[in-house]
Write a structure and sequence with these properties.
Number of domains: 1
Largest sheet: 7 strands, mixed
CATH class: Alpha Beta
CATH architecture: Roll
Low-confidence stretches: 5-11, 13-19
Number of strands: 7
Order of helices and strands: HHHEEHEEEEE
Mean pLDDT: 90
Strand content: 35-45%
Distance between the termini: 63 Å
Number of helices: 4
CATH topology: Nuclear Transport Factor 2, Chain: A
Structural class: alpha+beta
Amino acid sequence: MKQILILLTAIQCISILTNAQTAEDSVKAVVNQLFVAMKNTDASMLKDAFADSAVLQTIRRKPDGTFFVHSERVSDFASQIGMAKKDSLDERITFETVKIDGPLAVVWTPYKFYYAGKFSHCGVNSFQLVRINGHWKIQFLIDTRRRQGCE
């Protein structure tokens, strides 16, 4: 009987610790997973952060100063990341905004990107995440890129 009581107490403690992570922490963990995967050039880990139907886009500037939206498949992005040298891709983000409503999350992360230890550019990432089968996945990611105003 004593062993059963100890076992039940242990299970309850594990349950409390597992549920201690907030929804916001879970969302941030998936976003961080993307950047850890980039740094480690782990294409599989990177793809796992995204939903199957994810959209990946970048707002770019043409030489004439006008903007356009460039779309990329997650599989192509993951392949590029997988070919990079480990630790050469270092995107440093800050979580400015995280909003959650049930299975939908919005995340805004200003960033600075370093390639092979040298500053390359900065901008903002805008994420839309969805909770699918109990797991947060990136459904939509669009970012800006610039070299000026990167204090």
